[in-house]
Design a protein that fits this description.
291 residues; alpha/beta; Rossmann fold; 2 domains; 5-stranded parallel β-sheet; 10 helices; 34% helix; binds phosphoric acid mono(formamide)ester
Length: 291
């Protein structure tokens, strides 16, 4: 039984095969490959993209989807999460997709189920499907010639599960990372680190902006997000006419993470990431459910 908890659960070869499927699925509105299968989604944190993307992916493959409304589930009556998941597992689903604020929670469920667990984001730990769709978008853009391209990741890197998974995954496919953030948003680790995007804008091929995860902060760093945006908003003024791919996992805080003007620029791939997210998740569901 294979689960997807972090990007390291898949080898490079598995990811290459996954992306071959995702490329086919990107052109496909419907398939019957998961007819008769059942997927349960369990989101204890809000989501627009990941939850709807998984649901659409499952339905496009012919699977049925049950979204457990956690606000009306028996969690509020004192049932432990492990018991909740064990009970859902007893209904014989073919995969359980879970998002939770606690780091490591999806990994702790693996031994209590008979179907794949897919981590849809656990605290600031990991967001493997986001990093896979980000990598897919980058590889597609560079037509498979991404080796040696430089990716600047900027913003609140330290508390970002997207960054955490991309720090693991992108270098495995030859991408060089440069972290751009103030000291308090820098993660530990042996990465190239700079304070401002202007310091490296002439050498980067991709800029990946991140939201400031206020919900994960234990202290206040700025009077307001606008204050942070003054130094860290990715703008047309900084990027200029350079051939740089602009990415963001969403949700975007406009004019704080990326300016309105740049979000409307053809170099900005934010919505292409979302489209690719469905195809990559279709490939992930197919791989894990039919394993
Ligand atoms: N990128 C991402 O995880 O977005 P959602 O929180 O809307 O799922």
């Amino acid at each position: 039984m294979q689960h997807l908890i972090t990007p390291n659960d898949f080898t490079n070869e598995e990811i290459v095969n996954l992306f071959e499927d995702a490329t086919i699925f990107n052109d496909l509105q419907a398939s019957s490959v998961l007819n008769g299968k059942l997927v349960i989604t369990l989101f204890f944190e809000n989501s627009t993209r990941t939850r709807s993307s998984f649901e659409i992916a499952a339905k496009r493959l012919g699977a049925k989807v049950v979204n457990l409304d956690v606000s009306t589930s028996s969690s509020s009556k004192g049932e432990t999460l492990i018991d909740t998941v064990a009970n859902l597992n007893a209904m014989k689903p073919d995969a359980i997709i879970i998002r939770h604020r606690d780091c490591g929670l999806p990994a702790s469920l693996v031994e209590h189920v008979d179907c794949p667990i897919i981590n849809a984001g656990d605290g600031m730990n990991a967001h493997p499907t986001q990093s896979l769709l980000d990598l897919f978008t980058i590889i597609n853009h560079f037509d498979g010639k991404q080796n040696g391209k430089k990716v600047a990741i900027t913003g609140d890197i330290k508390t970002s599960r997207v960054a955490s998974s991309n720090l693991q995954l992108l270098p495995r496919f030859g991408l060089e990372l440069i972290l751009v953030a103030p000291e308090h948003f820098m993660p530990l680790g042996d990465f190239r680190k700079v304070q401002f995007l202007r310091d490296v804008v002439d050498e980067v091929d991709v800029v990946m902006s991140l939201r400031t995860q206020l919900e994960r902060h234990s202290q206040t760093y700025y009077k307001s997000l606008e204050d942070f945006g003054k130094d860290y908003c990715v703008t047309s003024d900084i990027i200029g006419s350079r051939d740089i791919l602009i990415m963001h996992p969403g949700p975007v805080n406009r004019n704080i993470d990326i300016s309105d003007e740049l979000l409307a620029d053809k170099r900005c791939k934010v919505l292409e990431q979302v489209t690719n997210g469905v195809a990559v998740r279709m490939a992930i569901l197919k791989k894990l459910i039919l394993q």
